[in-house]
Amino acid sequence: MSYEGMTEDTAALLAHLGIQNADVIGWSDGGQLALRLAFTHPELVRRVVASGVGLGATTPQMQLAIRALSAEQWSVQVRDEYTRVSPDGPQYWPVFFDKIRTMWAKPSWGISEPELGKIKAAVLIVAGDRDFTRVEETTRIFRMIPTARLAILPGTDHFTFQKRPVWLNPIILDFLDEN
User: Fold this and answer.
1) Cα separation of 128 and 164, whole Å?
2) Residue range(s) of every CATH 3.40.50.1820 domain in the chain
């Protein structure tokens, strides 16, 4: 499991469906994929909204903290949602989680700062002011993308779409409606 592999799977699906100039909205890992898709397959992407994205486990301390995470620490809601959509069943959750943890523990989460600078699509970077990724890192990502805009939602954590739709939906719709 890797951001690169998931991005290529997404590009292949869009190509198979004949979709070009897609507006791609992603949250967390989905936001990472949206940014990577805009860099690697610019012909497929018109606009990107990415919320809750970061550069990766860039310090040894962050890598150790991620490696220390366990499948049991995740909420029942997350595990239930996995069970609902998994073809492998609930018993596969620890294996799946181990793959995600390994992916998250890498120093880079799929796209580098120089790659961010080459994104041509219009981009809206969204984050909560209490997200996992610090506002400083989010701002750094925003500044790396020449076409980017930034929306920091006050009093909000990683779950921007879920917790602040009344604030965020008009911002996203306005961004997507621009020529």
Assistant:
1) 9
2) 1-56+112-179
- Which pLDDT belongs to residue 14? 97
CA separation for the pair 153, 27 (Å, rounded): 14
> How many other CB atoms are found less than 10 A from the CB of residue 89?
9
Residue type, 58: T
DSSP 8-class letter at 129:
T
CATH code that applies to domain 1-56+112-179? 3.40.50.1820
Place of tokens 């409606």: 177
| CA distances to 3, 20, 78, 136 from 16, in Å | 20, 10, 30, 38
**Residue for token pair 């610019």:** 42
Residues 29-60 have pLDDT tens digits of 999 999 999 999 999 999 999 999 988 766 77
